Amino acid sequence: MKPIIGISSNLKEQVLSVSTNNIHAISEFGGVPIVLPNIEGESVDAIANMIDGLLLTGGGDIDPTLFGEEPQPALGNITPERDVFEIALIEKMLELNKPILGICRGVQILNIAAGGNMYQDIYTQSENKLLQHDQKAPSTHASHFVWVMKDSLLSDIVKVDTFKVNSFHHQAVRKVPEGFEVSAIASDGTIEAIESKNHAFVIGVQWHPESLLLKKEAMSSTIFQAFLHACKK
Asked: In the 3-class helix/strand/coil scheme, how is 69-96 assigned residue by residue?
């Protein structure tokens, strides 16, 4: 039986939306994609029990009060309903030890749900000399390199030390919570991937592998294959 994969969605003016790249990525590798609502309450537990895996998609900024900060001037649009729903769902999925793959915003909300924090805006808050992380190129173009940590789950999946990714973000993971570790970084020190040390498959990446799949990029295919394989278990 094909695994059912919940896909998180954007919410704007009472309209849910999600890039079809995410849907196609799940169906291409043998999953049944289900777009999730941003709702609270007992429905979260029901959703977590129903799905076999969770894909946390990209989107807007995250409410900084969720990790104890006031909003900085460079903070973009936030969607509180989405933040609350995703954090509750992530917590339940972690409790059930079900697979999670976070993409861009997804790695950030995963990190926060597990107890970490983030840069509201890397360009004004990071002390490092930064690369261009909001690329001025098509989403199918890989614009900079990431370096993969040895002995990580990500390393086991991609089986290379470095590869190129696309990049569309101004927020990023800052402090990784207990039980998680960094599994990839950019040359400027920006955290590009994290993973849980205590769960079978919980990985977040800062780039958009679902877009790179349109050009049959090998690392992206491998990541989605590994995610769906974990969900089938």
From this structure: CCCCCCCCCECHHHHHHHHHHHHHHHHH
Backbone angles phi, psi at 33, to 5 degrees: -80, 135
Per the residue annotation, which of 192, 208, 217, 231 is the catalytic one?
A: 208
pLDDT of residue 38: 94
Is 104 among the residues known to form the active site?
yes
The C-alpha angle with vertex 105 and arms to 95 and 101, in degrees rounded to 5, equals: 45
Residue 15 carries which side chain, given as an amino acid letter? V
Output the pTM of the full model: 0.97
With the C-alpha atoms ordered 32, 34, 35, 40, is the resulting torsion angle positive or negative?
A: negative
Query: Is 199 assigned a catalytic role?
Result: no
Q: For residue 54, what is the DSSP state?
A: E
Q: For residue range 121-163, what is the model confidence (pLDDT) as tens digits?
A: 999 999 999 999 999 999 999 999 999 999 999 999 999 999 9
Residue pair 68/115 in contact by the 8 Å Cβ criterion:
no
- Judge whether 210 counts as a catalytic residue: yes
pLDDT band at 165 (very low <50, low <70, confident <90, very high): very high
Q: Where are the alpha helices (DSSP H) in the chain?
A: 20-28, 43-50, 80-96, 105-113, 122-125, 153-158, 209-212, 218-232
Which residue in the list 86, 104, 133, 217 is annotated as catalytic?
104
Which of 86, 192, 195, 210 is catalytic? The answer is 210
By CB neighbour count within 10 A (0-12 exposed, 13-18 middle, 19+ buried), where does 55 fall? buried
